[in-house]
Amino acid sequence: MNDFENIIRELIVFFQQNQELEEKKLKAAEEKQTAVIEDCMTKEQAIVLKLRGLDKKREEIQKKLGWEGKTFRQILEIVPEEERVKYSQLFDELTHSVRMFQSANESALEIISLNLRQVQTAVKQKENKGIYNQDGGSVETEPQHLTNRKV
What we know:
GO biological process, one term: bacterial-type flagellum assembly
Keywords: Bacterial flagellum biogenesis, Cell projection, Cilium, Flagellum
Organism: Zhenpiania hominis
Oligomer: single chain
Structural class: mainly alpha
Region (Disordered): 131-151
Protein name: Flagellar export chaperone FlgN
Helix content: over 70%
CATH architecture: Up-down Bundle
CATH topology: Methane Monooxygenase Hydroxylase, Chain G, domain 1
């Protein structure tokens, strides 16, 4: 059971450490720092792979212990009484860490989505105004007739 306790602790630390990255992404989204957001998202790809590895390791340990496919609540029902309090605290801490991570992630995604909609609206408005100069300002153009032969 020591391996199971260790993997749960690893998952807790994993989510706590990566919550910082989500908070950094949230702050960058609020401040519209695109390069920082992109950097965070690149790092998230590696995080997802590591999480998959940790989760696979947890599943293997649970299988060895005869707990394959069991939820944490179900595990609490079958562990010895003296282990129940320890595992209950670990599961609560893991749940809290996951929720904090998810909250920061969801907030960042909402702000990024809002910013994207604002950019799309601005682009759409500019598209309806015609030609633009190098500064992004629109340039008024005279309507040209098909019979106009001016060059």
